[in-house]
Amino acid sequence: MKKKLVFLTGAGMSVESGFKTFRGNDGLWENFPVEDVATHEGWERNPKLVTEFYNGLRKKLYAAKPNEGHRLIAELEKDYDVTVITQNVDNLHEKAGSTKVIHLHGELAKVCSSRDPYNESYVQELTEDNPEVEIGAQAADGSLLRPFIVFFGESVPMIEPAAVETQKADIFVVIGTSLNVYPAAGLLHYAPTEAPVYLIDPSDDVQNVVRNVTHIKAGASAGMKELVKLL
User: Fold this and answer.
1) pLDDT in tens, 28-49
2) Which of 17, 35, 70, 85 is the 20 to 30 A CA-CA neighbour of 175?
3) What is the DSSP string of 157-177?
4) Region for 196 from its dihedrals, namely left if φ exceeds 0, alpha if ψ lies in -120 to 50, beta otherwise
5) Does the annotation mark 105 as catalytic?
6) What is the arithmetic mean of pLDDT over 193-214?
7) Model's pTM, two decimal places?
8) Residue in 103, 105, 189, 215 annotated catalytic
């Protein structure tokens, strides 16, 4: 039986691909305040602005390519049972070939009902040749189509499946996200005590870690090369 390898990836995973999430330290993306484009209140106030904002981001996403770090994670499926838990809204893990990806914060490539966002019957995936949502477009339940994104202040419905996968980990790897920030820090508590934990991140900011962590001080691609050697 293959060993279970669980990755938790954050914004640092996609930096080399030229794509960042709005959950960065500055709280802004493309000069738009988060409260205008990434909250339920912002959506209620101006759905046209939010729709146009994500239409623009989707075009940038479709222009981005997976980096070597994404590809190395996908290639590990040959030898391990790999699950990727990502805080990123991009689909670069899937583009690289990863087959088991849990998106904690939603998926930019998808839209959903604004009345019932997590009803799979109303979730639609947009294609690269048709990445835009028309202003006023509706889901099958008659509500406006909204981005399939977990807005700030909303619950994170996929945290429970992520915790279940983490509990099964033989090896747990964190890439490009601080171990001081939830949900990363929270998921770390679910990893079995005997499971080795690796952190791939160029930053020195690895404080308050409650267990031994092997810190690979590098970006996603260089760090993954080093991890593959260690494994």
Assistant:
1) 466 778 889 999 999 999 999 9
2) 35
3) TTHHHHHHHHHT-SEEEEESS
4) beta
5) yes
6) 80
7) 0.92
8) 105
